[in-house]
Amino acid sequence: MRSSHHGDGYDVLVVGGGIIGLVTAWRTAQRGLRVAVVDPEPGGGAARVAAGMLAAVTELHYGEELLLGLNLASAARYPDFVAELEEASGRETGFRTCGTLAVALDSDDRAHLRDLHALQQRSGLESQWLTGRECRRLEPMLAPGVRGGLRVDGDHQIDPRRLAAALLTACERAGVVLHRERAERLAVVHGRAAGVVLAGGADLAADQVVLAAGSLSGRLAGLPDGLAPPVRPVKGQVLRLAVPAPYAPFLGRTVRAVVRGGHVYLVPRENGELVLGATSEEMGWDTTVTAGGVYELLRDAHELVPGITELPLTEVRAGLRPGSPDNAPLLGPTALPGLHLATGHHRNGVLLTPVTGDAMAALLADGELPEEARPFTPHRFPSAADSARQEQPA
Questions:
Q1: What is the pLDDT of residues 22-72, one digit of tens each?
Q2: In terms of CATH, what superfamily is 10-47+162-230+325-389?
Q3: Which of 116-120, 336-340, 388-392 has the lowest mean pLDDT?
Q4: What band does 262 get if pLDDT is binned at 50, 70 and 90?
Q5: What does each C-alpha distance from 75 to 253, 322, 337, 355, 378 come to in angstroms?
Q6: Alpha-carbon distance values, 293 to 95, 201, 220, 276 (Å)
Q7: For the chain, is the Cβ count within 10 Å smaller at the N or the C terminus?
Q8: Could you tell me the CATH superfamily of domain 100-153+233-323?
């Protein structure tokens, strides 16, 4: 789908400048299309509060085996993707191949981890069961009560804030035009998406529009009835701590656990920062940092790694992940010609960045999604309009 515009319009207009919107814009511009991004603060979004775990194996959940394939495909692309992005932008992304250790603190958690290990093995994934003593040998700061764990050397990490900054610079260098303003309304002309109207009143025309605004994707005015993407905000609270020199190295790899039924993880950065998260709360659009959320994270992390209470607390923040009905992304064309989605990545947005960029660029430039992305088109969810038609008597 090469350019048909010869005036002031763009080939592709991406609504949303988070990491998903930026990687879509960058990869598409590399294909030779004229691309613009609309976002008041490009480089922000959910990535500001994400921990950046690239955890295709330890994030495996029952019933998500189809998503596993996409996660693994994206994880495999990360080393080459990072090398290309860092060269294109001149910025480092904080990519670390440090591995992950998932541990259990009691017999119930140990049984859960054993079940997860069995599922990983059935899925052909590489993970190693360790005793509590072996876990503490790897990470001496772990609590004496650790009962066992899973060592996954292939689950790595990246710094999402640095990733977003690198993508923003790469976009600028690739010729992507940044409109630092809010998209007010989708423009539909003759039954086709034709651009957007900005909050300031300006019109931006485009052959194709990509809605990549995270949890806000369904709130763009002008979407035809039944075509608002089924994404919802899922709140996550995250803490950042500093690791002073006397405590370094505090942890050598990402450590995660289930404590009293709640998930907690600790992600050590090379710069001495320790990211602690994360809550998962169905609270609508609320982004308030709560005393309860901070307390629970620190309490659970202290049970896992007692020395954490000695570290300075440098930041508390809450953000909104874009959740979909099946926790998988919505990638590809909608029922409205010219309108595509790249949203709904939920907890896997950072992990799925490389494969999303490749898939969306292929769709926008060549008109067809790669095979690996086809199970995740928006068409797997019947729209309200479709449902209404199905309910009408013949």
A1: 999 999 999 999 999 999 999 998 888 899 999 999 988 888 888 999 999
A2: FAD/NAD(P)-binding domain (3.50.50.60)
A3: 388-392
A4: confident
A5: 17, 20, 31, 8, 23
A6: 28, 40, 30, 12
A7: C
A8: D-Amino Acid Oxidase, subunit A, domain 2 (3.30.9.10)
pLDDT at site 257: 92
* Closest to 280 in 3D by CA, of 50, 112, 122: 50
Mean pLDDT of 110-125: 93
What six digits make up the tokens of 87?
């060269």
Tell me, what's the pLDDT at 383? 64
* pLDDT(390) > 80: no
Note the pTM of the prediction, 2 decimals.
0.93
CB 384 within 8 A of CB 225: yes
